[in-house]
Each structure stands twice: as structure tokens, then as C-alpha cells.
Specification:
The chain is α/β, with parallel strands linked by helices. The protein has helices spanning 16-19, 173-179, 217-221, 224-230, 263-279, 295-306, 361-371, 383-391, 413-419, 424-430, 432-438, 456-468, 492-508, and strands at residues 3-11, 23-24, 26-32, 44-51, 70-77, 86-88, 95-96, 105-106, 108-116, 131-132, 136-140, 144-150, 152-153, 165-171, 184-190, 203-207, 239-243, 246-247, 250-251, 256-257, 261-262, 288-293, 314-317, 348-351, 357-360, 443-448, 477-481. The strands form 7 sheets. Strands 1, 4, 5, 7, 9, 10, 11 and 13 form an 8-stranded mixed sheet that branches.
Length: 509
């Protein structure tokens, strides 16, 4: 059982050298609203978030921002009762992303919010049933004691109502057997203009950027201009399926793993056949495509490679590292430390379009350490949590085995060897003789040459390998755009039009 509280505090601005000398003690009392007391669970994790972003609701600020940073404190709690009032004060049990403590908070203006995470099914803090307070802004130059009330509950997800939009919830027998409990897969579906259930349609499976949920269809449905085109005779006659990114350790990556179970088989053998029996009117692979950007770019490419006969084209934009000699800036097979490079410098994980480093990998990982119930990134629900769950062998305490130490960054060479089967360049190279003929005309990749997360070197190496292939020679279309950042040219409209062109060319043959 787990239980979380999250407190978000947003700070306007402060000079760090000055803040070291001028600070105040932050403490608070948290009560539970009478109407929500029956929902309370007894164990979980308490988080305190401090962010410089005053414009967004603090509970949504869980990724480190290089310009408006969020500081997070966390600790586990057990034995909570609905009648209890939680006291938030500084003690040795907090793990933190900050370089200050709750009894030495820098003076400034803050937006404070508390979230009580008591969900046991989803991997991230925005799960339905979690409780949170209203945001509260303060401006303090001296110690302050605050009172909060958990008065709101995160509601169940739902998609926007539209005559062309459908929601699918499907119990996976494969995953349920693996986890020994019911596991549902979810998707939203956007049918084409004039949809006729008696006709056969091409179909597109869209994989989201990191952690994207199936409810992201709402952003299209609520976009009047977008829907004016999508629900018109000019729009491609293609069904769009928006897959859900939720998995036990963050994004499932839609593939089989030793830690999360048979998500790939569940998708290919169960979920897609079910969707197509209900909506598509055909099970032909000739007009079945997959696409996505970032995480979705990696997953869509991996699905095309691991299931080459099942999809007839992948449209991959800014994919996660597809060559682990370039796992962002880490060579997992040679580097000794993830946080520090061979020159002794702190390794960045993010940069501006002009190459300026914006965020270190160590700082990024510390955010995930704080979000994880294990005080490590291994079950944070974040990006590196999901990578580790997919690529790594099972470790102790039912957690994935880390590629690198969560605090020191020290690399584990044995784990790196295990990651090789998910290194898409190595996989494609090893299996090219049988893969090559099956991939003809199917690979379309776009990458910005100034990708924010240093993903372009891996795609370059994948492209370089494909250029050396023979028998057959690869005809993959890989485009690098100068001075373009992460997912800068990705759009649903562009993808649909490219898929329609692919359908048209196949029909001419």
C-alpha cells in the first residue's frame, strides 16, 4: 500500500547567494475535508514542491525546469487516519531536489499546494482519486505556519464528447495473467469524416510523447480549426487510434519487458485485433501504420522493427535514443559514470536550440529519485523509470535493476549488456538479413539536428548503419532538419497526409 502527499510551492525569483543568508522556516498543518475522509488510505508518500512557475498549478510541475525550477521534498508516511492532521516540518526523513531544507527556505513569494497521492494502480501522481488542496500564494520574509485542507479529488479520465470519437477499454488476458490481477488497456479513437461501419479503412496507431494518455484526443476535439479539417471531405479517410501510455513504472513503451510484462504481445495479439474487429472492417496489415514523436517516435519505430509484418509503415519523429552508444550523451557500453563525462564535466540532459546546456542529468535524475516511492528513479513514473523497466532485468524488491546508481551515477556493465536487445541499431544490424526485405518502403524518420535532449546523434548512427546495408539496400527515409529542436515539425495533420500518400501509392501497385 502507498500513500502520497504533495506540496507544491512556486517561487517568483531570488538571488541564491542572498537566499543562503535570508531564509525562513516553513511548516504547515494539513487537514482532510469532511467529504473526502472516506477516501483516505493509510500509507503513502508526502511530497513538498517548490517552483518558480507562478502561472501553472503547482501540482502539474513535476519535471525540472531550467528557467523556473521546481524544488521537491518527499517522504513516505504510514498509519494515517482520516481524523489526523498532518504536520509538515523539517526532519531527516525528507529526500529533496533542493539545496535547502524546510527550516531554511529562501525568502520570497510562493504558491503552495498539497497533493495526497493514495493511488496504487497508476504510476504517476495525477491518478484519479488522489486528493489536493487549492493553491495558496504567500510572500514571506519570516517563519510562517500555514493551514491547508485537502478539498479536491482528481476525477476519472474521460474523453470529450464528439460523434466521431470513441473510447475503448479492454481487459488484457495476457497482462492480467502476468500480474495476477485485472489489467485494462485503453485507447481513444477518432473516426474519419463520413465514417461507414460497413467499409474497410486504413488505420493509424498513434503513440504519445512520454506518459501521454489516451485522453489526449481531447486536444484535437477541442480545437475548432483542427476538427473543421478532420471532419471534412478533404481529410484522409484514416482511423486514428490514440494508445495509452500508462504502465506499471511509467510509460509502458508498448513492448514486452521482464518488469512490466507482455505489453507488446497484449497490443499486437489482443488489443489491436479487438479494436479492428469493432471499427475497421478489415484486419489487413497493408494499411496499418504507426507513428509518434519523442517516446512515441521510439516506440513506433520499435513496433515496426519488432513486428515488421504487422505494420506497413512507421512515421517516427525525434525518437528516444535508438542507439545506446548514444543514449543521449552516454555510451552505456563504455562510460563509467552517467552523471560525469570522460572530461570530468557534469553531463547535461537538455540544451537550448543554440546548444547552451540547460539541465544536468544528475539534477534530472534527482527529481525522479524524489518522485519514486523507493527514493530512487526506479519507480518514479518518469522517463528513466520507464526506460529501466523496459530495458533492464528484474532486480530486488520487485524493482528493475538500475543501469546506473541513482545517487552516484556509477554504471553497471552487466545491466548494460542486458539493454542490448532494446538497442534498435544493434537489433536491426543483427537481424538485417530477415528484417531488410520486410522493411522496404516502411521507415520514415524525422529528427532535428539540435534536438533538446541530444537524441540526434543516436539517429545519425542508425542512419549511418542503414546507409551501409546490402541485400537489400535500405530505402529508409531519414530527414535531419538543421537548427530544429525536439518534435519541432511533428503534427497530426502532416502524419495523416503522409499516411494517405502511402495508401495511395500502395493502391497504385
Amino acid at each position: 500500500m502507498k500513500f502520497r502527499i504533495i506540496i507544491f510551492i512556486s517561487v517568483l525569483s531570488w538571488n541564491f547567494s542572498y537566499a543562503q543568508k535570508t531564509s525562513f522556516t516553513f511548516d504547515a498543518t494539513v487537514a482532510i475535508h469532511e467529504s473526502l475522509k472516506k477516501q483516505i488510505k493509510s500509507e503513502g508518500r508526502l511530497y513538498v514542491f517548490l517552483s518558480e512557475n507562478m502561472d501553472a498549478e503547482p501540482r502539474t510541475q513535476i519535471w525540472p525546469s531550467p528557467t523556473k525550477p521546481t524544488y521537491i521534498f518527499a517522504k513516505n508516511i504510514s498509519g494515517l487516519k482520516a481524523s489526523d492532521k498532518l504536520k509538515i516540518t523539517n526532519d531527516e526523513n525528507w529526500i529533496s531536489t533542493s539545496n535547502f531544507t524546510l527550516d531554511k527556505v529562501p525568502h520570497g513569494a510562493y504558491n503552495v499546494q498539497i497533493v495526497w497521492d493514495q493511488d496504487f494502480e497508476e504510476s504517476r501522481i495525477d491518478a484519479p482519486g488522489n486528493l489536493y488542496s487549492e493553491p495558496r500564494k504567500i510572500n514571506s520574509t519570516e517563519s510562517i505556519s500555514l493551514d491547508f485542507e485537502l478539498s479536491n479529488s482528481i476525477q476519472e479520465r474521460k474523453i470529450t464528447s464528439h460523434n466521431l470519437a470513441k473510447e475503448v477499454v479492454f481487459k488484457s488476458e495476457l497482462l492480467s495473467a502476468w500480474w495476477k490481477k485485472p489489467i485494462n488497456l485503453k485507447a481513444s479513437i477518432l473516426l474519419p469524416h463520413g465514417y461507414d461501419s460497413s467499409k474497410a479503412y486504413p488505420i493509424r496507431y498513434n503513440v504519445a510523447g512520454y506518459g501521454g494518455r489516451y485522453t489526449r484526443i481531447k486536444y484535437l476535439l477541442q480545437n475548432e480549426e483542427a476538427m473543421k479539417w478532420l471532419d471534412s471531405p478533404e481529410s484522409p479517410q484514416i482511423i486514428s487510434v490514440f494508445l495509452d501510455g500508462e504502465g506499471p513504472f511509467g510509460d509502458s513503451y508498448q513492448l514486452n519487458s521482464e518488469n512490466s510484462g507482455p505489453y507488446g504481445d497484449a497490443l499486437i495479439k489482443e488489443f489491436i485485433p479487438y479494436i479492428e474487429s469493432k471499427f475497421r472492417g478489415t484486419s489487413s496489415a497493408d494499411t496499418r501504420f504507426v507513428d509518434g514523436c519523442s517516446t512515441g517516435g521510439w516506440v513506433s519505430l520499435a513496433l515496426q522493427l519488432y513486428y515488421p509484418d504487422f505494420f506497413n509503415g512507421v512515421f517516427s519523429y525525434s525518437p528516444d535514443a535508438i542507439d545506446f552508444e548514444n543514449y543521449q550523451l552516454i555510451n552505456i557500453y563504455q562510460d563509467k559514470n552517467a552523471f560525469t563525462n570522460e572530461f570530468g564535466y557534469s553531463r547535461p540532459v537538455m540544451r537550448s536550440k543554440y546548444g547552451e546546456p540547460m539541465l544536468s542529468l544528475k539534477d534530472f535524475i534527482q527529481y525522479e529519485n524524489v518522485l519514486g516511492f523507493s527514493n530512487t528513479y526506479l519507480n518514479s513514473g518518469g522517463q528513466f523509470s520507464a526506460h529501466t523497466a523496459l530495458y533492464s532485468p528484474k532486480g530486488s524488491n520487485n524493482l528493475p535493476q538500475p543501469l546506473f546508481d541513482p545517487l552516484t551515477g556509477q554504471m553497471d556493465k552487466e545491466v548494460a549488456e542486458h539493454w542490448k536487445k532494446y538497442d534498435l541499431k544493434l537489433y536491426t544490424k543483427k537481424h538485417w538479413k530477415e528484417l531488410g526485405p520486410k522493411l522496404a518502403g516502411k521507415i520514415f524518420i524525422w529528427m532535428g539536428d539540435m534536438d533538446d535532449f541530444y537524441l540526434n546523434p543516436a539517429t545519425r548512427e542508425f542512419s549511418n548503419f542503414l546507409n551501409t546495408t546490402e541485400n537489400p539496400k535500405s530505402d529508409a527515409e531519414i530527414v535531419f532538419s538543421p537548427m530544429a529542436g525536439h518534435c519541432a515539425e511533428y503534427s497530426h495533420f502532416d502524419v495523416l497526409l503522409k499516411m494517405q500518400n502511402r495508401v495511395d501509392s500502395l493502391q497504385k501497385k
